[in-house]
């Protein structure tokens, strides 16, 4: 098992380095520091002196990859690539344009993002699997047909509609929960309840259809017919055999959600006024704060690759034969 994990880990390192290089090229080669300065200062009537001053204040006045004027190791370290890209591997994200430490902001805002994303993920996964199993149990019946229609209807509605509609009906008309805001501690529950419910409802349609398709494919396997021939009930077949053998495709779909557990939901956090990483990213984009945006892109890639690694490991728990590959 350890050898398998190490092998997968070393597979992930070149991928992360490649993503880092592509991100660096997009931010500093395609969009040069001079371009960034003009976007911040204004395209019209901006002087070269103002551009150079803006670059010097933010450390963008160094060479991109190789500093020929420096000596020794400084040829590689006194560059934009090292200071703005390589140092992110050790958690040094630098400072935002407003002077605040990006790593500290990420640490503070990760809590609210997890507080809303983790319950939404766990509850949504549980509800979707149970609902899908229920439809498969009553397959080819009116309940199954109606459930599929409901899932398609839920998929056809934009997530923005659920957010605005939920705020208007539950918060403004019924006054059950605050319309927006956030507070630390247990007080946060009343602020997170509506976003979590909306997150589960908005994503349940696609999830249930996906899991239903997987389960319907599994019940045609030979092992299912063998289990039925031994006298097992349909419920036992579904939950003890079909569900376990469907874990591989389920785990594959779960990995896509892992980055959002930390990075937060851009729309949900912005509309509900939750000071998480999603709203932090939106604020950075609106303010054209390239340092924050670059840090969030890097963190997203790290989390996604970590999710892939965790999924590979979980495959071995669901199916030990994977270890031999």
In short:
The protein has 16 helices and no strands. The protein has 325 residues and is mostly helical.
CATH fold-level topology of the largest domain: MetI-like fold
Q: Do you know the CATH architecture of the largest domain?
A: Orthogonal Bundle
Helix content: over 70%
**Secondary-structure element pattern, one letter each:** HHHHHHHHHHHHHHHH
Main CATH class of the largest domain = Mainly Alpha
Walkthrough of the structure:
With 325 residues, this protein is mainly α. The protein folds into 2 domains: 89 residues, no CATH class; 223 residues, MetI-like (MetI-like fold), CATH 1.10.3720. Helices cover 72% and strands 0% of the residues. It has 16 helices and no strands. The longest helix has 36 residues. The radius of gyration is 25 Å and the shape is globular.
Task: Summarize the SSE layout with pairings.
Blueprint (H helix, E strand, L loop, with lengths): L1 H29 L2 H9 L6 H11 L15 H4 L2 H5 L17 H36 L4 H15 L2 H15 L14 H31 L3 H8 L4 H12 L1 H8 L3 H6 L2 H7 L4 H10 L3 H29 L7
Helix pairs in contact: 1-16, 2-3, 6-9, 7-9, 8-9, 10-11, 12-16, 14-15, 15-16
């Amino acid at each position: 098992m350890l050898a398998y994990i190490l092998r997968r880990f070393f597979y992930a390192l070149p991928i992360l380095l490649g993503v880092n290089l592509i991100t660096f090229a997009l931010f500093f080669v395609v969009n040069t520091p001079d371009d960034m300065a003009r976007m911040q200062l204004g395209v019209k009537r901006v002087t070269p002196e103002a551009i150079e001053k803006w670059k010097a204040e933010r450390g963008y006045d160094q060479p991109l990859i190789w500093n020929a004027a420096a000596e020794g190791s400084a040829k590689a370290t006194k560059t934009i690539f090292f200071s703005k890209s390589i140092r992110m591997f050790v958690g040094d994200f630098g400072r935002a344009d407003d002077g605040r430490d990006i790593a500290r902001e990420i640490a503070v805002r990760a809590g609210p993002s997890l507080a809303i994303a983790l319950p939404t993920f766990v509850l949504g996964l549980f509800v979707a699997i149970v609902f899908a199993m229920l439809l498969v149990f009553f397959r080819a019946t009116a309940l199954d047909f109606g459930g599929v229609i409901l899932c398609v209807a839920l998929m056809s509605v934009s997530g923005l509609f659920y957010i605005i509609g939920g705020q208007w009906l539950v918060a403004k008309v019924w006054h059950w929960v605050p319309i927006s805001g956030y507070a630390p501690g247990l007080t946060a529950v009343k602020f997170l309840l509506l976003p979590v419910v909306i997150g589960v409802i908005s994503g349940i349609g696609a999830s249930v259809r996906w899991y239903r398709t997987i389960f319907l494919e599994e019940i045609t396997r030979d092992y299912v017919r063998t289990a039925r021939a031994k006298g097992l009930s349909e419920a036992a077949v579904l939950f003890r055999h079909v569900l376990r053998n469907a874990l591989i495709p389920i785990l594959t779909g779960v990995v896509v959600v892992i980055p959002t557990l930390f990075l937060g939901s851009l729309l949900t956090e912005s509309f509900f006024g939750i000071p998480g990483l999603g709203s932090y990213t939106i604020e950075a984009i609106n303010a054209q704060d390239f340092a924050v945006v670059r840090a969030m892109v890097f963190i997203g890639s790290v989390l996604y690759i970590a999710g892939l690694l965790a999924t590979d490991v979980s495959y071995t728990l669901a199916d030990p034969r994977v270890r031999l590959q």
